[in-house]
Amino acid sequence: MQERENLLRIFKETKEAVSRDDVVKIKNLSDQTTNTASLTHDPDNIASAVIIYSLSKILQREDYKKLPGWNKFYGVYMKSIDKSIDALERRNDEGFGQSISEIRDAIRNLSGKLKDYIQDVFRSAEINKASRIYEHGISMERTANLLGVSLFELARYAGEKEDSDIPESITISVKQRVNFAMEMFE
Amino acid sequence: MKIQISGKDTQKAIVFDSGTLISFSMNGTTDLIEKLKGIFKGKFLITSEVKKEVIDTPLRIKKFELEALKIKQLLDDKVLEMPSSLGIADPEITIKTNEILNMANSFFIGNGREIHLLDSGESSCLALSRILTEKRIKNILAVDERTTRMIVEKHENLKEFLEKKLHVKIKINHDSLKFFHGFKIVRSAELAYVAYKKGLVKIRNENVLDALLYAMKFKGAAISGEEIEEMKRLK
C-alpha cells in the first residue's frame, strides 16, 4: 500500500466530518486521495477516493435515509470506515482490503430503490474520480482502466466538464495542426 | 516483414486512437469518417488494442453497444482497416508498443516513482505510426486525449502540468526523450474541419463548423474554446 499515513489521516478526518455532517469537507478529503492515486495508481488509494466521494454524495440525500435498508447499510458503511482506520493503524493491508470489500458487499445485499440509487452513486463516483485522474495528466485510456470505467463514459464526462480547457495542453499552433490534416488530404 | 506497396493509394495513412473514433461515434457523425476516407488516397488504420477498446469491449455494454456497432460498421466496410492490410503483423506492433510503454512510463519521475502515463491503446498507435514511418509511409495520428499529445509535442508543458497537479517536483528521464520526436497528431476537431472545408458536411448552416467543433470538444476531444475560435477564423 502506498501513502499509508496519508490515507489514515484522510479516513480519520472523514469520520470526524461525518459526525459533523460536513459533506463539503468529506468531498475535499476524497479529492486529496485523488492526488495520491494519480501519482501512484495504487488500487487502495483509488478505492478510498471512490468510497469517500460516494459517502459525501450519499449523505447529501435525505430521501435515501427514509428508504428500507438504509439503517443497516449506513451502519455497515461506518463500521467499515472504523475497520479501515484500525487496519491502517495496524499496517494490516489485508484487513484494509476486507473492510473496503464489506462496503461493496453491503451494496450487493441491498434491494429495491436504495440499491439502484447507491449503485448509481458509486458508478458516478468512479467516473468522477476517473475524470479527476485524467485531469491530473494521466492518459484517458490508462485512467479508464484504473477505475474500470468505459472510455465512452469517461470521454463524455471529461468533455462536458467546464474546466476542461487547460492552457498547457496547447502544444502547437492551431494553424500548424490544421495544416497537418489538410496536407494529408491533398 | 517487407511491405508490398501497390501504387499511390497505400503510401499514406491516418492512425486512429480510440478517443477520436469515440468523438465521431457519440456525435452520430461516423458518416464523416466514411466521406473523408472517400477522398483520402491512403488507409485509415486502427490497431488491435484500439479495436478492443472501441468495438469488442463496448459491444458487451448495452449503454454503448450502438456506438460500438457504428465503429464496427466502418471496419466491416473497410473504411477503417487493420495494419495487416499493409502487411504489418500484430506481433511487430506489440514489440514496439511495449518499447514505447516502457519509455513513456519511465519518462517522468515524481517522488522517486515513475509516473505511468500511457496505456497500451495509445502506445500501440504511436508504435504503428513509428513502424509506418520506418517503412516510409507518410502518416499522422488522430488522438483526442491530451496526455499522448503533450508527451510527443511539448513534454515541458506536461512536466509543468504534472508538477502543478500532483504537487511534486518532476524529473525527466532524458534517455527517453528522443524517441518521442517526429510524430504528427491531429484530433477529431481537425478532421471535422477538413470535412467541412472539403464540402463533406450535409448540413447547410453558417454555424455548422462551430457546432461540429464544439460537439467534438464535448465528447472528449482535448481542444480549448480558444483554439476552436481560432480555427473558425482560419481561411
What are the key terms here?
heterodimer; A: mainly alpha; 0% strand; elongated; B: 235 residues; alpha/beta; Rossmann fold; 3-stranded antiparallel sheet
Structure summary:
With 186 residues, chain A is mainly alpha-helical. Chain A has helices at 4-19, 23-40, 43-60, 70-89, 93-109, 112-135, 140-147, 151-160, 174-184.
Descriptive report:
The complex is a heterodimer of chains A (186) and B (235). Chain A has nine helices and no strands. By secondary structure, chain A is mostly helical. In chain A, helix 1 runs antiparallel to helix 2, helix 3 packs across helix 5 and helix 4 (70-89) packs antiparallel against helix 5. Chain B contains eleven helices and eight strands. Chain B has helices at residues 18-26, 30-38, 48-56, 65-76, 90-104, 120-134, 146-153, 155-166, 188-197, 208-218, 225-233; strands at 12-16, 43-45, 80-81, 108-110, 113-114, 138-142, 170-172, 185-186. Chain B has a five-stranded parallel sheet with strand order 3-2-1-6-8. In chain B, strands 5-4-7 form a three-stranded antiparallel sheet, with helices on one face. In chain B, a hairpin with a 2-residue loop joins strand 4 (108-110) and strand 5 (113-114). In chain B, helix 1 crosses helix 4 (65-76), helix 2 crosses helix 9 (188-197) and helix 9 (188-197) packs antiparallel against helix 10. Chain B is globular, with a radius of gyration of 18 Å. Residues 1-9 of chain B have low confidence and may be disordered. The chains are: A mainly alpha (186), B alpha/beta (235).
Specify the oligomeric state: heterodimer
CA-atom Rg of chain B in angstroms: 18 Å
Share in β-strands of chain A: under 5%
**Total helix count of chain A?**
9
Considering the protein shown, what is the CATH homologous superfamily of chain B? Answer: 5'-nuclease
Q: Mind telling me which CATH architecture of chain B this is? A: 3-Layer(aba) Sandwich
Runs of chain A in which pLDDT lies below 50 for 5 or more consecutive residues are none
Question: What top-tier CATH class of chain B fits best?
Answer: Alpha Beta
- Measured between the Cα atoms of the first and last residue of chain B, the distance is 43 Å
Shape field of chain B: globular
Tell me the total number of β-strands of chain A: 0
Q: What is the global morphology of chain A?
A: elongated
Number of strands of chain B: 8
Number of helices of chain B: 11
Residue share in helix of chain B: 40-55%
Strand content of chain B: 5-15%
Main β-sheet description of chain A: none
Rg of chain A to the nearest angstrom?
19 Å
For the largest beta-sheet of chain B, the strand count, sense and barrel status come to: 5 strands, parallel
Name the pair of protein chains with the most residues at their interface, and give those residue counts.
A-B, 43 and 73 residues
Low-confidence stretches of chain B: 1-9
